[in-house]
């Protein structure tokens, strides 16, 4: 269930927890799909006749996805990339089951029937390891308002306070706005995302690179709910002096994985389907303001002991996503002022970056779910502003909303900026840098985790780890060059002016940064320039330095 800024009044005490809930692909409720009202997750024991040598990486993934894995030293393909064996699917459908989706990562398939079916027939098949019912009729859902936001219009904090609190404004002022990174947003619907003014720039530049609805299996996502729209506005929104997204120049995949009319483990299957889709298209980050712990059928509920990073189906799938080189950022949950209290899946994952919520004054919110994980690890990982965050969900005015649903995109967008600033950083590097530079890193606790992040400090840590310092105050390379020029500084220059001048003395371009926080600068201005000699003049607080650069034909 989504842990957006949802304030449910009715909370049941969790009862039985299936230690292996959900996974797979989309599907929906009776109201959306008609007669199908039972869904089954079938676990297979192997991948049948499918073998590694039958597939090349390009058969399974886009070039971008292959390159992301290569950067992280991840072998491609591996066992989890191999598709579910079609022969097994065929045998089950011949029994009268309808296929809804499949998951290569978890080696499962999601089937559905009009009425209850005897799963013993499935369990008797030699290739079936287990079967779980993940959705059944239950009457009126008590979670039908689970994505309803808590709205407040009287918050006096600055509109960009979520960014300034974590030194994110300085990253943006240095040109690190998420450009070149692909963020997959998994949510319950993106109604009005094709219309609201805050996303005009995103739409105008073609920054939405793909959409899919894994609940009903089609590509239309601009309906159902505005929760995803609000989340996307926190990530990519831009209205001067009113709204500032955390990664306004990143690209996005909009993926609907949450059925907003009910709450069943099958939604974990949709989540996994969305994550696999994001992986195949080369997403760098999954931003998920969703979470799972209780369901419309109490027998399907998780227990707190299941929040151990190993049990919940969606958590295990999130771990697979990380193993593919994707950074998964998840809301910690809004349950501390309710009976549940604790973090929810998949934020319990040991490799998932979990976001708690503080207010504009840096105080943890009353609703932000508490850690630790059931096995005693620090959770949430960090906390960013999730109270009074400026969002937009309709074409009208902006508003303020609260919940870890919004601290999550603040954090995931800033992670995209870090990736842009230090492209060689791995997922592990980024998580470690964020944790180690947060304000409670020396005394983490179960409310703030490692504390409120400092993105400027995180860049320094990453660059000290991965970027070699030049002997002089600055250096350029490669030289000669054919495409871009990389400038490396011994120390972050602070204020910075960059001029590129031709051999004849003609000024080609000038860049001014009031506060440049990185030791690396990529200059793209000469990509299409003529072959010849150019001069790069750098003016910093430490002096002015000029480098001669030689441009060769491509």
Short key terms for the protein model shown above:
554 residues, alpha/beta, Rossmann fold, Immunoglobulin-like, 3 domains, 7-stranded parallel beta sheet, 4-stranded antiparallel beta sheet, globular, disordered N terminus
Written account of the structure:
With about 550 residues, the protein is an alpha/beta fold. The chain contains 14 helices and 23 strands. It has 3 domains: about 110 residues, no CATH class; about 325 residues, Peptidase S8/S53 domain (Rossmann fold), CATH 3.40.50; about 80 residues, Immunoglobulin-like. Helix 9 runs parallel beside helix 12 and helix 13 crosses helix 14. It is about 20% helix and about 25% strand. The strands form 6 sheets. A 7-stranded parallel beta sheet has the order 7-10-6-11-12-13-14, with helices on both faces. The chain has a 4-stranded antiparallel beta sheet with strand order 2-3-1-4, sandwiched between helices. A 4-stranded antiparallel beta sheet has the order 20-19-22-23. Strand 19 and strand 20 form a beta hairpin.
